């Protein structure tokens, strides 16, 4: 049997401290002091931020706190992604802090990112004094209005006495039900005003009652369908990881013998090496996983949302399948694909109840026969396995680099990736055996995510090795946070997959725009320089971005910089990076620029049109199934 499933570091999301816990006596203090005490009592331990005028009152009492660690980042976007990485690695609520105006608006991208990926995040921003709101005051921005569509909830606090209650509510909202980001915008005069502090505050969230327990009748109907279907699939999304339901998922899968596909956000929820795991569905998913959904007669979706990267052209997705859709957020159910059996509930409770109901069906003699289904699945899996070709010119293959980083990483390593080709290769070739060890920007697709997210993950789990897999384009967006890592003893490791281009965009230009590489060239060589970088036209062969020189840049930021250009050096360089734990390490892997991500379902097309490789369409035996 493959590797045992370990419970995720983030087994269950935290809840607001129970009201029955010992109440603190009322104390007189400023609103700013009240904010720091509230964060401490809500369970915050590490926060990421940058001070500025409007939030400055809070930074003075922060110096006196013995329970809060503040990490001074170099850009607010880094604070937001670091808080996201921290939350995903620890299971706690991530906290980031910024001042008003541009400080707050710089948090918009990570807030949107956390919203799309359902990450519990509390973003605290300073606001201009309440009397100045609406006057176009210096560094004023309506961050509450700006973030309204991308937060689970947000608050504007203008009174010091409201701070403890609001912070408590923000943590509760962020971490319960479907997790997500909550913004707390506090005016400067509220921070400076005198108030009294006591904890816990009285909760005031009328109407907010997340439903976690599924309806028994719907669970029984789901179990009945699951045991009579001929071609069922468990379609697993990130909600299973959020609920800490990996052990329950494995129990259900092995009980039923049904194949499992895990989305990009759910990698690790089910062991990648398990014989029932078909891989990742979607645009760059495994052929067998995509085909399984297309040919299924029943899809049991668990904490997944039928997004376009999975379904392809929606009206041609899984045409033969009935759908059981379980999600803690009722809004997701039937949003994109009609659910024949809708189940609202926490994924762990749903899966446990479903397994119990399936056992009852088995006791009554109802068990599915999936032998013929597995014959098809295994044929597709054996015929179209993951793989890649090594470059004919002897350069490093990006897939080879990422695969070896995963194979040589110490046990329990956490991985964060940026967005692009390297993200898909990381999804395909890293080991995804343990829940809670893989972080990336799945919904928003945020380039620049990986370095600050890895920083946050390492800050939260200093006992784990943390690798960031980044592209040379992504890396140039947020690498300044390596300075933060170097100065705060956060020794992450960064693999820059340096192909000298914005790789995924270049791949689309190659396939769909006649190889006209308009403004995707990052290197200083000759190829297509006229449409991108013009520096170095006429120079020798293009071998990765050299402006900037990532090795020198890493050294300048207090890190160790390494470079690898030859496959013969690959293992030695990775081993050296793994051996350095007193500083961050950046490895500049110079890879071949023309590698592509396969398989691929072109955007807007049907999953039936998946290409296993260029000009290679899999044979699914369509006639027999149709």
Kindly report how far apart the N and C termini lie.
Answer: 35 Å
Quaternary structure of the protein: single chain
Average pLDDT confidence is 92
Main sheet properties: 6 strands, parallel
Alpha carbon gyration radius: 25 Å
Overall 3D shape: globular
User: Number of helical runs?
Assistant: 24
Number of strands: 20
Detail the poorly predicted runs.
1-20, 530-540
* Strand order within the widest beta sheet: 3-2-4-5-7-6
Structural class: alpha/beta
Q: How is this structure best described in words?
A:
This protein has 626 residues and is α/β, with parallel strands linked by helices. Helix content is 35%, strand content 15%. The protein contains 24 helices and 20 strands. The strands form four sheets. It has a six-stranded parallel β-sheet, with helices on both faces. A six-stranded parallel β-sheet has the order 11-10-9-12-13-14, with helices on both faces. The chain has a six-stranded parallel β-sheet with strand order 16-15-17-18-20-19, with helices on both faces. Strand 15 (414-417), helix 17 and strand 16 (438-439) form a beta-alpha-beta unit. The longest helix has 17 residues, at 347-363. The radius of gyration is 25 Å and the shape is globular.
